[in-house]
Every structure is written in structure tokens, then in C-alpha cells.
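fwd from M.: "can u put these together and see what the complex looks like"

so here's what she sent:
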Amino acid sequence: MAAAPVWSVDPRTGKQREQVAVEATPAEVDTAVRAAHEARGALADRAVRAAFLRTAADRLEAAREALVEAADAETALGPVRLTGELARTCYQLRAFAGIVDEGAFLDVVINHPDATATPPVPDLRRHKVPLGVVAVYSASNFPFAFSVPGGDTASALAAGCPVVVKAHPDHPALSELVAKVLRTAAAEHGIPAGVLGLVHGFDAGIELIKHPLITAAGFTGSVRGGRALFDAAAARPVPIPFHGEQGSLNPVVVTEAAAAERAEEIGAGLAGSMTMGVGQFCVKPGLVLAPQGEFGDRLIGSLMDAVSKVEAGVLLDHRMRDNFVAGVTERAKLPEVESPVTPGAGGEHTVGAGFLTVPAARLAEGGDHDLLLEECFGPVTVVARYTDDTEARAVLSRLPGNLTATVQLSAGEAAGEGLGVSILAELTPLAGRVLVNAWPTGVAVAPAQHHGGPYPATTSTSTSVGGTAIERWLRPVVYQNAPEALLPAELRDGNPLGLPRRFNGVLER
Amino acid sequence: MAAAPVWSVDPRTGKQREQVAVEATPAEVDTAVRAAHEARGALADRAVRAAFLRTAADRLEAAREALVEAADAETALGPVRLTGELARTCYQLRAFAGIVDEGAFLDVVINHPDATATPPVPDLRRHKVPLGVVAVYSASNFPFAFSVPGGDTASALAAGCPVVVKAHPDHPALSELVAKVLRTAAAEHGIPAGVLGLVHGFDAGIELIKHPLITAAGFTGSVRGGRALFDAAAARPVPIPFHGEQGSLNPVVVTEAAAAERAEEIGAGLAGSMTMGVGQFCVKPGLVLAPQGEFGDRLIGSLMDAVSKVEAGVLLDHRMRDNFVAGVTERAKLPEVESPVTPGAGGEHTVGAGFLTVPAARLAEGGDHDLLLEECFGPVTVVARYTDDTEARAVLSRLPGNLTATVQLSAGEAAGEGLGVSILAELTPLAGRVLVNAWPTGVAVAPAQHHGGPYPATTSTSTSVGGTAIERWLRPVVYQNAPEALLPAELRDGNPLGLPRRFNGVLER
């Protein structure tokens, strides 16, 4: 049987551009994983891997023009957005280099012997060590930031773990190009090319998750794809952690007082957030609870104005376009659902943005309308009109886990009047990021960031963005009664590496 | 169908003592979980739960005499050991109260807006919140420390999570008694009794892991039982974290130089560790790599002397006794396996300690001898005699994951001569705790402790003992652009609760 070809496709035309590669056979997946496994030692020195991450950022920036062009040809996301995304990706690589330098992620805890404890405590020194080779499953919608050089790869390399990436079929040529840049950067620090493996093909992705030398996996994509891989990871003879970010409905609550105060601003802000990147963000606001009545009507009017002006856009591939068109059509047919601006097919290769409205009561009671509580990838949102807080709360209680939950409050509510505090408390169980008077699109790279949420938003309690993303690829080890001469430098009393640590109960920073 | 009775059994005679309860029906499991779910709010205040944990320790200590008597009647572990274990358990509850007070586990990270970041960073404030109701599966071998009031329960309550315990069938009466004490302590702080549920029965344990309101589980027991529950947790519509501690082989390497220097001391130390608690510790050294030749022979001689003096002991139940007798018999029959002191049946209800020897080459090559690489619960160990380092290393490379790995070094090696450093590096991938010139039995309760290891030792990268055990029951949430008036006190700029935190990149303690 001939190896299946991997084509680069232009989403603006649906036409094949070039054959990039062939799908990896099981033997090729094995070779990639073994090469990554062999590269572990080259990442052992923290200084080397911090330097590698910085060089990777430098080399990506140096290749910006070619990379953005390659990315645009396969994703149609446009050079402005892609240039920004590449800058974000380089910023992220450097941020992880800083995290490696600081070393707080090693979580060093040292206890000297304590005969007064029950039972007595011997000399114990704990830190974290890399798990081993990490499998990364790229996303379609961020060809840099959540793909080959993205947060999963950056955080795994920062942790000291080589990576094998399963390329997303929507940008195979870019994936090859970026992998080459990263390997060049690795070579500058004496790190073998195997530190970053790249495989193409659906079956190769399954092989990868089952490989005995894979120790953990990161994934960004659909619930269906993520769950299949999660199940495979859990079913292995040796199960491994699977950190899947599977998308989200991202509910928004607009209070009556907020709508009274800022209906037009909220409508316009919502339009911008839900159509950004042609609605292809996992944090796109997909369900908005807005009040019935005059203020909510004003919000809808403003949303209509703004959304109807949005130009038709090209989705990442034609399968997504078909799914979007089918998805919005099916939703629009539900009883009592209206389409003030009808989403759906634009030109032959584009889609038009739009939104649906529905009485919140329909979502509170279950049944066919539950379809509206499922993510629909693309430029559409659902505005559920509620008559009172009880109805809004009933809808919230039926939502699955989310990456984000947002509330739009009035100035008074934001200052603590009325229901402000209680709404925040009600939204917290729903999501990993809770926003006030802001929009969920745009996930900042910052130490405090958390990009994850209750299932199905993610398959673990971890994050794929922000400083703590590194924690996913480490495990603790404690040394008991090990003499100073044998201890890693990280665990010596004198703290020669100047690490933040917990030393005999005292937090040293 | 009548509800199945739950009997308390005397392991010294195999006779039923009394009927304690009946096995929980699915409806009763549901009632327990819902009551626990309702108790979440009562644990929301950190000061309340710290006080509750301290009162729980006080009340357990006040009931010491009755508790130790009840525990001994069902486990035959003896009052000395059980008194010590209860003291450890109370120490652990108070240690977690201290951890709750300090609040470092909340992992507070605050970022003020930063327009210079790529993309710009908004106001982000992250901390950790409790997951919800936790299921705890008790172990047989530590009726206090890894049972109803043990580390899983203490850490879950400390995190703010109510608990439903699946009682171990080897000490149902004690489990009921302890649950009552803990609920009394809860009532003193206005916490409803539902905060600590208790259910009996194998099927109830399965119901529990599948219950939609269970958010995570802790388990200590066998690989078989742990894996079945892990699989059920992963197969749920909403999968949940399953932290299973499943036992371990706990390899020990004795270097030639160490044996030359301290053969007798090592033999005697090993005898003490492998027979402690009638060999019923999950960290019992189950495989010892000792050199061939004179020094190793001296070690064997010393081990023979010490083990042959150990009195026959009562195992926790008669099923374990049967398994032990069958397990050692099957192992002893393997080619080239010898039994310098034959382990096996003692009296009608007891077992005798012993050990087996085998050429290390047999373990390096796979086949029938792989049985010797599986844990055998009870007072037995296997000494594999190696001819050179290559052979010893070949055996190590074939081991599954372990809770502990130990090396006995000479004074010179411990000071850094010879292979000291490299042996430590080789043992690190095998286990979560690496010991030098010590024995793995005895798991201190300390901030630095890590009681977990690569699968099958544990099903996650977490620990069930030590300060970081609390991390298992929490998830991060970040607030974006939330005004001060709406923020939890933990996340306010002024740090009114005095928490350790990362504030605009600076670690504050």
C-alpha cells in the first residue's frame, strides 16, 4: 500500500497547493519518538534549554516574512493577524525561558531531619523532574500559537521534555517549515534534531498516543477528537496524563442594569468578539444571556448593526465551512429561534456572520433546544433572552464546563451593588476564566493566566496558556537521606542556583 | 433481595465478630454524595476548616483507647503500632490545618495590566478553588493513616472538599467509629454530618466513582482494584482525576563496596524493613540487588539470622494469607530460586517471614521469572545476586514504576566516589522517592514528602502523603478585569489575608 499523501490546501479556493509529505507509518512514528527520547539528555541543563527557547524565538522572528506567507496560504487568517500571532508565539517562548531561569517550577522543598515530628522526619529533599517525551496535537485555528511552536511545545521543552508534534492537516507545509526553524535553533545549542519530531496523519496520531515512550500529551481541538485521544491515553497498559483543551460555549451574562447603561457598547463589543478571526476562537462567546424588554432590544439592535457589516470570511477548511453551514441551519430551524442576521454560506468559499435569538426558557427546560448549548465553530452566537434572574440562572445551571464565563455589569454592580458578587460566585463553577466587563477572545500570555476549565473544556485541571502550563510535564521526586555530595545542585542546602524554595517550612524567594 | 450484611472479622481467628452495617444501595450512595455536595458551603471558610481539622485530631486523640482497641480487633496490628499510627494521623490532620492557615496552596498569582506584553495583559488574578466532593477508597493496611481519617480525607477537607469514604471491608467497625468522631468534630464547627460520608460494599464503590457529583478520587490498594476504578473514572461521561496508590516492588541496590563495608548491618536492616508490620507496607523492599561473592554471602547470612528469628504474624485477613502462601510457593518453585528462610504458612492463622534468592541474570532476561518482579504482599523479599554492574543495571531497566528505590552505598560512595552519583541518577526514573543508606518503610509526614511514583505505583503524578497532597483536589480559576469590590479577599491587591503569592512577577512570602 502506498503511503497516503499529505496535501497543503488553499482554503480560499479549496484547491490543493502542493504535496508536503506522506502520512507517517507506525515505524516512522516509532523512529520519531525514539529520537525524541534520545534527546532528553540534551535538555537536562536548564541554562541550555532557556537559551534554546530564546534562540527559537529569534529564528522564528528572523523567518517572519516567509512564515506568515506560508501560514496565510494555508489558513487564510491574513497577514495582520498572523504577524501578531507569531509575535505572541515568540513572546511565549521567551516567557518560558524566563520561567526556566527562575526555577520556581521545580517546586523545591527541603526538610532537615526532625525528631519531634510524628513519626520523625528524615532528611527529605523534593523537586520536580521532566516526565519524558511529550506528544503535542496541534490546533487548526492558531497555526503558530497552538501548533508546532505553541504553548504545549514551549512549556514541554521548558520542562525538559522533548516533543513529537502531530501536525494539523490544515497547515502541513507551515508545520514542516516551523519544525525546521526550531531544529536549526536546537542545533545551535548542540541539541539533536530529534528533540522536535513531527508526524502527519490521523493514524499516526493514534500510534503516537499509544507509544510506550510517550509520557504525556497536550491537545487543542474538538471534544470528539480530544475524547478519543483521552480514552486511548487512559486505556494504555501504562496510562498517561492527557491535557486536552476541547473548546467551549463561553457563556456571557448581561445584567438588566448593564444593558440599561451600555446596550449599544455591549452589542458592538459582542459583535467584535464573536466574529474575530471569523469566529474561529475556542473562547468565542457562543451563548449570551440578555434581558427581555427595551434594554435587551437595544442590545440586539446594536448587535444587528455591527454583525450585518461584517464581511464574509474564509474558514480554515471546507469541512469546517460545511459543518458551520449545516450547524447554523439546524439551529435556526428550532422552534422560537429567530435569526436577526442570518449566519451561513457566503460566497462559494466563504461564510457570513450572524446570530440567533431564543427565549431563555427554551434553554432552561432541555430537549431539542439543547443543541444551542453545543459549541458551533465559526462566526455565530446565540442570544437567549431571559425574563428574570431565576430564568437566567436556570440556563446557567444546565451548561457544561467552559473555558470562560463572562458577565457584563453596570457601573454600580461592578462597584459591589446588587448582584455583582453573587453572579461572580455563580459563574466560577462554570469556567476556568471569569471575566467582568470584558470579552473572552484574546488569551493573554501571563503568569496568572488560566486557559482551561471543567470538562469538556479541558480533560484535566491544567492550563495550556500561562506560566503554570509547565506543570503538566513534570513529576516530583524526593531524595531521602542523600548525602550532599550526591544531591543535584537544586537540592543542596547552600542553594547554589538561587532557587525559590521551601526550606524547613520557610518560603524563601 | 435483602441488603448484604457487612461483618467485622477477627483476623486472628477468621471468625465473624459482629454485623456492622449493610452494603450501601445505589440510592444510599446517592444520598451520601448529595449530602456531601450540600456540605461544600460549610467548608468554604478556610479558618473554619483549619479549626475543624484540629478538632478532629483532638477528638480522635480523646477516643484513642477505644479506637486502638477497635482497630486491633479487626486488623491484629497490635496496640503499639496502632497507637503510633493514630498519633501520626492526628499529626497529619494538624499539619494540613497549618497548610490551610498559610494558604500557599491557593497558588495566588496576580498580574496588573501590562500594555507592553504581546499581546497586552489585562488585569488577571488566579487562585485555586476546591473541586467538589471527593471519593476516598480506604486501604486495609493502615486503618487510620490511609483510611477514614487518613491523608486523602485530611487533604481533601483541607482543600475545601467534602468526602465520601468507601470503607475497607477489613475494618468496617473501626471505620464507622472514626466517621462518628469526625462528624462530632464537624458539628462543633457548624459543619453538617454529610461532610464525611461512609459507604460499605464493593458495588457501592463502583457506584461512587460513577456518581456525577463526585469530582475526584483517592485510592490506596492493589493494582487490580486501582486500575478497575481508574478505568471507571476515565470512562465517565465527565472523566475525573483518579489518584490511585497501587503498591510497589521498591527495589534496593546494594553495591559491592557497601556490602564489603556493612554486610551484616544491611542484612539486619533489610530484615527489619521487610518484616515490619508483617510485611504489609506498600513501601516494603520487595527486590534487593546484592552482589555475588563473599560480601553478598555475608549479607545473606545476616538476613537469614534476623529473618529466622521473626515470629509468625497475623495478616490483615485470611484472603491475604491465602494469597501470600500461594504467591511465595509459586515463586519458590521457579528454577534457580532458593529459599534460605522459607516464607509461608505459619500456624492456622499466621504466616512466617522468609526470603528467596535468585541469580540476577534470570531477572534480566524475562520469562517465568518476571513473577519475581511483581509485588508479593506480606513478609517476603527476593534477593537477586548480580555478578557485575551491567547485570544489575539490566534488572533495573526491566522494573515497572515504584514508590521508592533505595541504594546502599559505602562511605566512600556516599561521599561521591565511584558510582554514587550515577546510581542515584539511574534510580530516579524508577520511583518517586529515592533513598540512600536508609530503608523505605516509614513514610514521614512532611512538606517535602512524595509518596507516589511512575505507574503502576500511582495512577497520577501526585502524592498521597505530605503537604502537596492537597493539590489533588483543587483547580485554578483566573478572574479577568474583575473590580476590587467583587474579588475574593484572596485576590485583592492589599493582600488582606497575608497570603504568599506571585504579584506582578515578584514572589511575595
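replying to her w this: Chain A has a mean pLDDT of 97.
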